[in-house]
Amino acid sequence: MIERYYPAGMKEIWDEAAYYGFWKSVWQAVLRTRGQDELAAKLAGASLEPEAVRAREAINGHELNACLALLEEQLGGGAVQLMHRGLTSSDVMDTARMLQLNRSLTLIQKTLDPVLSALKDKAVKYKHLIICGRTHGQWAEPTTLGLKFARFLSSGQRAAARLENVSAKIAVGKITGAVGTYSLISPDEEARVLARLGLKPLPVTSQIIPRDLFSDYLYALAMVCAFAEEIALGIRLMGQDGIREAAEPFASRQTGSSAMPHKKNPVICERICGLARLVRSHVEVGIGNIALWNERDISHSSNERIILEESSSLTLYILEKLLPVVQRLEVYEDNIRNNLERAGVRIFSSGILKALLETEMSRDEAYAVTKQIFQSGDDPAAVRKLLGEKTSLSAEAVSRALDPKEYVKHVDDIFKRMGL
Amino acid sequence: MIERYYPAGMKEIWDEAAYYGFWKSVWQAVLRTRGQDELAAKLAGASLEPEAVRAREAINGHELNACLALLEEQLGGGAVQLMHRGLTSSDVMDTARMLQLNRSLTLIQKTLDPVLSALKDKAVKYKHLIICGRTHGQWAEPTTLGLKFARFLSSGQRAAARLENVSAKIAVGKITGAVGTYSLISPDEEARVLARLGLKPLPVTSQIIPRDLFSDYLYALAMVCAFAEEIALGIRLMGQDGIREAAEPFASRQTGSSAMPHKKNPVICERICGLARLVRSHVEVGIGNIALWNERDISHSSNERIILEESSSLTLYILEKLLPVVQRLEVYEDNIRNNLERAGVRIFSSGILKALLETEMSRDEAYAVTKQIFQSGDDPAAVRKLLGEKTSLSAEAVSRALDPKEYVKHVDDIFKRMGL
Amino acid sequence: MIERYYPAGMKEIWDEAAYYGFWKSVWQAVLRTRGQDELAAKLAGASLEPEAVRAREAINGHELNACLALLEEQLGGGAVQLMHRGLTSSDVMDTARMLQLNRSLTLIQKTLDPVLSALKDKAVKYKHLIICGRTHGQWAEPTTLGLKFARFLSSGQRAAARLENVSAKIAVGKITGAVGTYSLISPDEEARVLARLGLKPLPVTSQIIPRDLFSDYLYALAMVCAFAEEIALGIRLMGQDGIREAAEPFASRQTGSSAMPHKKNPVICERICGLARLVRSHVEVGIGNIALWNERDISHSSNERIILEESSSLTLYILEKLLPVVQRLEVYEDNIRNNLERAGVRIFSSGILKALLETEMSRDEAYAVTKQIFQSGDDPAAVRKLLGEKTSLSAEAVSRALDPKEYVKHVDDIFKRMGL
Amino acid sequence: MIERYYPAGMKEIWDEAAYYGFWKSVWQAVLRTRGQDELAAKLAGASLEPEAVRAREAINGHELNACLALLEEQLGGGAVQLMHRGLTSSDVMDTARMLQLNRSLTLIQKTLDPVLSALKDKAVKYKHLIICGRTHGQWAEPTTLGLKFARFLSSGQRAAARLENVSAKIAVGKITGAVGTYSLISPDEEARVLARLGLKPLPVTSQIIPRDLFSDYLYALAMVCAFAEEIALGIRLMGQDGIREAAEPFASRQTGSSAMPHKKNPVICERICGLARLVRSHVEVGIGNIALWNERDISHSSNERIILEESSSLTLYILEKLLPVVQRLEVYEDNIRNNLERAGVRIFSSGILKALLETEMSRDEAYAVTKQIFQSGDDPAAVRKLLGEKTSLSAEAVSRALDPKEYVKHVDDIFKRMGL
């Protein structure tokens, strides 16, 4: 994982030393379950330096056997015998992986929480700030800035629910032997070892934990990133010069371009969009890892070493970067008002159409009249005049249709429904 | 969707005529909610022929406005006024899409059920049939054929749980207007219309239903296909000549190759693997549809027209094809026994290693001795002799280690745990 | 392939009837090579109705054997003997596929040509129309609208070069027998049959044509779509209300929204973006089809039936839709000028920085001064005043730096280099 | 990039220090072009420690401005003025990226060469070693082991051709300013700077080099990996117990399983398959980077920092691992012969069918007879007897059809055609 996007919290879980640390946790749980508390304590102090492991592995071509050899040197053969007896490598490795996934997930959940809070704050703060809605990049009916944030919040809540759902699934481990039959260990002993680690057994396994669980994990993370991308894209769009209704915060010491000193580029939001693209590509790799040969082949393992660490780190990184962007978002209320004015009366065409449909006019005719009037120009007075000439709408009906507040009168209902 | 892989059940949901039928369902629910039962009945009888829609759309470039025009001709302007007043196109289209998704999901769930039953039957039937386990394509500890099926079943149960989870999420619709503000309709009316369709409102929407729900749907389907792929790959591997422990059933009138009349190719399993590859690629497309511009852009819609229908149809197709393959799987018990014999004693190396670890021997030494003995040959007598010479294991310990039943003694526990 | 996005030209190549037509082409070439011109002519008139083939295939489970049976009924056993003797199914099917790919590619190339011409025309027409450049969505140095089109053109030329490159690769076929050994036919006869079809043999094959060639085809198409997406996105961005420098053309009878009659949505450009997303997802599926089992397994075939037709059709569809959008693009020169004015002097910050770097000032200081001046406001007079106060730049140097023409003085050089 | 799969050669190109080294190369070329050889030499000695850059970047949020500041401290403001005057960050960064791509490609090409040689050697060595062909995992017509290698070689040659093709495309750089207009530098100066770096200008650019070139690079690499995967999968299939015709070499000190000491797992081939899956997923990310906003947005950059390094490193790693596997492949000629015997006469069914088609028998009848005979059993004598009873084939015709050499008689032709 490149340094640049590797949050400290994830490094502690995913770098090689940490990974071997989780192996030791599994073996310690085995030892404790076997009544060897003292050995477990000694094991905790033993060292599995990544470089030493790699050197040993260069000889025997097997990462876990390399670790066993190193531990045997430090703890003596007896200890190693006791801790790995009846186990196969994957019992240790896969259970350790699950510890990593569980820890990462918790970290991601904790980092998502304040993002949701920040979105909630913005939703509430701008609940009634009318802003020009946009569909297809074009001015549409009025909405409120708060409602945009309510949408982001709702999306984030669904992302959080996915994490919650997956956290229950991945709280599992496996110590079932070389082909999943408990050939040399009992289901009962497995349950006791896993319980010490906060994990549960699976109904049945092969040599390894089924890879669809890893895919679920990768998908849930990709969906957190998609949620962040949604917000990042939204901010980039609002921040464009010519529109400029809100923008990514820009520190005064920050520089935007080496050639053009005036620039305040939304580089964090752009970065989020680019990384989200990568995280979601890992899902297909993960699904491709599910169908393995017989009781297992190891083709999944090489790419998992990369994508699990990377998706975990990038998701956390994205959330860490998103938080201050949301919290300190620059909102330009003047521009929002100016844009509403520039948009003119055309954004009320739907209200006029609806008013006409409440008269005797047929839909076809009503649509044609409305389209003609609103595509001809934006001057409110001119539009009112045309409406008077071409329709039988009352002045009151016209005024209601041209009043932005009419369009957002249900915002309170939505917020109430969301508990905001 | 190509005819070849398009199950009748899905065609009834996804072809263009069916899609417009769901539009009519939405409008009918609107009419009924507005007390227009008679009009709703008339609408039910109105025709929206895909070709007619396309012809009209060629003129005005808008699919839903084309339908409204056609309906106005048949039902008169009043009806159309009443049914679409206050609605935006996406209120109808997206709610109709959700009806399609819900119907498809139900169909897929119903088709998955008998596959799970068939797997259960096989698991129980072959619970104690000892078969050589395989890891990395190579003979490993003994397992049972029933346990392989128990694994497939467990995987299928997780796939079913994903469908269940997503079915709750997608039972939603939206009638919230052009930018999601209920500008021209009330939340209350939305709830009543949706209730008639068996759907619920979302907390908040843009012009459309948030696309992460579609992504969840696509992912759940891809995971059903991954489950099927797992089984299909397992059968292809067991069916290889030289191994041939089980095989895809082959009808007597079936022909396998135009050049080589002797062939009985597992073409269904191969087909499943190929289609699963495609269905999972749709997930990334679906995630890419989530971050849209402002209150919506329509870039998602064009690919959704293809991938939703395709993923739904292919998933159902795969399950329909998988069922008879599982049900009528050819199991060659003789070959299973022969292969166990060919595998010889080497597959018991783990038992010997464990036995040695229970003596005084260090792990390092035990491993080296076991490796040496078992890589030198497969003759049971020779191995027993070497074990006698090089280790202090008792004859009884050796016999236990070389007894395949020892390795599968916990199969009953696993089956009990799974409720089998 | 859904009707909606299925150009007539592709239908003629890809629907099932057409596919069987290509099979007949291969068999005809075999017959002619074997001196059976009369039989070849009879075969040309024989019928392979998709429904009839499917009915027969339902019995024997083999598509090509089904066709042979149907042809035997029409032409007698002798003819079928002669045309398929020594061939395996894939000799016919794969060679037919290559004919489809070649025909599709030609069609796509022909449709790309006028798009390139249209881009050229626009580039030349707007060569000197100064427009505000944008990076990160924000105003940057001036450029010209023609230069934007020159970029699109250059991108399209690279897309065309990829098609050209792939067209040479896929002009191949294979009649090498069941495992690629020419067991029952000679390399010489293969060469003669293929020559009649405008194809060449490959150095060596398995039962089938190596799938990396199909992947190359899919990639080249995805890159045509990426090129189209680039333009479509560019137009969507320029067309946004508040910016509105250019827009997708909108027919007067077209309707943009069923609720908001004023809308002129860039639905074609959005559609292109959505479809491009799908076409590029097929590349990964295609690469996943390359590594097959031994002399072949058929897992690639099921998804190829879908993705080859779909990528071909969608690519052509995209180009057919892109052409009129480029040709009739609406350019709003007034808005372009207004936006330049709104952008103000800040877009000249790079010129000022450069001018300062040509004085004695250090880069650090020059950068700080420029940033400070340009982030403080946009009023040209105020900026000139500040420049006078804080720098030693001559009035002439300032004027040059604030003159948009200075920034595009090399546009002619670029156009000359591109032969425009 | 994780240490484990990061070849030293790639580290020298891709780690952060190396990247900044390439930036210095670009600036040196600028200085030399501007006649500042002395400054260029001083710059070569200046230090851009990644940690120092990151610390500075933490303040100003701009990587390149951070470097400029560090260099200014070391070289003085004048030097920095001269080397970056008229340039925008991307001029330096993107040109440096291209240097990285070019260097990586050369390294990959050099590493592919010996793999092709090794495949050639094996093809020639086993040219005439008859082995049972396999389609769909089942025994098919005989082929030769050499022909399998010839196929791999041919596939590798196509992979090499793709690298060659892309190497010409990516030998480009860009120094065209902030929006690609050469606002502050001339095309002529660009050409001279790039020439010093062995690069050429592009016809036209935005702020950055068009991303389709990066996509071409990623695709070419993914195709090298697909080629390696093809071989790796082939070896895994041949190495399965029960088939065991060839196997990945296994060092005597290597250990295969911590639980089952007898195992010799093909872990390298499996690893290659898993990594290839990841590299090909980067193509879709790369294509998604092409369509950027206006004159550029920076969303591509964050994922490129990861995928370019990763695809480059993994491709090289795969080739480095593949080479000894091919060179020292274990071939079990006894098993190959035994398998041929086990396959029995059925693999000659195509020859019998062809012989029958040369008699008066209709294809339908001939097929039915052959299928019946060969599906009934494998005993050569019994088959000969049935052939005598049910067909009019001469003993000579039968013998020819049952002679494996008949099936591979064109192998020499193929090898000659390939120049082997």
Question: What does this 3D model show about the protein?
Answer:
The structure is a homotetramer of 420-residue chains. Chain A has 420 residues and is mostly helical. Chain A has 3 domains: 1-85, Orthogonal Bundle (Fumarase C, Chain B, domain 1); 87-331, Fumarase C, Chain A, domain 2 (Up-down Bundle); 343-417, Fumarase/aspartase (C-terminal domain) (Ribonucleotide Reductase Protein R1, domain 1). Chain A has helices at residues 8-14, 16-33, 37-45, 50-60, 63-75, 77-84, 89-125, 145-169, 187-196, 212-238, 267-288, 299-327, 333-343, 349-357, 363-375, 380-390, 395-401, 404-407, 411-417; strands at 130-135, 138-144, 246-247, 330-331. Chain A has a two-stranded antiparallel sheet. The first copy, chain A, has a two-stranded antiparallel ribbon with strand order 3-4. In chain A, a hairpin with a 2-residue loop joins strand 1 (130-135) and strand 2. In chain A, helix 2 runs antiparallel to helix 3 (37-45), helix 8 packs antiparallel against helix 10 (212-238) and helix 14 packs across helix 17 (395-401). Chain A is elongated, with a radius of gyration of 30 Å. The two termini of chain A are 39 Å apart. The mean pLDDT of chain A is 95. Chains in contact: A-B, A-C, A-D, B-C, B-D, C-D. Chains A and B meet through helix 5, helix 6, strand 1, strand 2 and helix 8 of A and helix 5, helix 6, strand 1, strand 2 and helix 8 of B.
